[in-house]
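Pilot study result, target chain (464 residues):
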Amino acid sequence: MLGRTMDQIRTTEQVNAALTTCQTLRLDGLVIIGGVTSNTDAAQLAETFAEAKCSTKVVGVPVTFYGDLKNQFVEANVGFDTICKVNSQLISNICTDALSAEKYYYFIRLMGRRASHVALECALQSHPNMVILSEEVAASKLTLYDITKQICDAVQARAELGKYHGVILLPEGLIESIPEVYALLQEIHVLLKKGVSVGSISKQLSPWASALYESMPPFIKKQLLLSPESDESAQLSQIETEKLLAQLVETEMETRTKNGTYKGKKFNSVCHFFGYQARGSLPSKFDCDYAHALGHVSYHLLAAGFNGYMATVTNLKNDVYKWRCGGAPFTAMMTVRRLLRGPGSSLIGKPLIHPVAVDLKGKPYELLLRDAEKFLMDDLYSNPGPIQYIGSGSDNKTICLSVEDQDYMGRVKELQAYLEQVRTIVKPGCSQEVLKAALSSMASVLEILTLMSPAVKGSITGHV
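Predicted structure:
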């Protein structure tokens, strides 16, 4: 293991340095372990090595606790199961305390940059009163005021039932999903790139951005001015969104008390950020088995001379002996997006493996919506307990993996079996009726697939 980094390969010099190192060490293979960024870099290295006729083959392994490296070949990421199990137990412990003290609202921020998979899964496992997903906020274009009002309305509704406690989950990427805050961060980052000092940035913001910035609490102002990460995103782990929302809710509840629309007890909050507690945990049994299988697959891909492939294991929601091992080319997972550069012009960006957001039409989100009202009002807290290696709970998988139907390669094999059956039935000597039925059916199938193929191709190879 060479180590862990958040940096991306950005320059030709960095690529050439990696090439030189692999040639100097006479490496047969290079296995890159990580998420969308790491595997995008792996794809770039694989192509460069092939062009340079370097003997080092490059293989990627899907490992990220964000859970956002998903496609038809990759059903889950190593680490996601562990972080969700650990976080869910911590959240459940907080839920128990909330139910005992009956006087605090706990705002808990979870890791998850561009996608809220961790927050969604933890909500399904631990049943907090509320979870606010980045994807919901982005889709509905909710403002900071909208989110604050949503929480305040929930607090008031619970107070009418005599409940003055609750647990609210937030993904760390939430702050970038709020339209006006994202625009403010973009302005700040542009000014930082231009070399404007932190102390002078406020004066150079646009009028609306300056007004928003000045309305923020001092601690948030300081955090918004932090230099962006290497991928141009804000330092989300350093921005205490949970404290910002807790303060805004407290202010709004005080306002409602003064104008007589809220007559309950005083609102009290406690804030937590669950990040490194879960990331440093011993892995779950599922992650141990999954990583073990991917390690073997990586070896066999390299031994067979494959370059530019990601190790894959599918059918994961079933027992280990039913898992299907294989490999998929990076190119099948990459998209090319157009980047707008002024009116009427665009620039095609380089191919990337993009993070996948929570599907607001998917089964896991549908499951959350089904029980959201009960979770909010009835305190149906659930504690999955600690990670187990032996016993009835040791083989539990994430709820999202269990309810999703992702067996892409299984469907491919099933289709191949059907085609083989057709080949067996429709052969020289079959009746005219069978032949006519087969021709008619295949013509209809081909017509449907031809109409669908542009959409299918767009979902794999790129979109504007």
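One observation from the pilot: The mean pLDDT is 90. A full batch analysis is planned for the follow-on phase.
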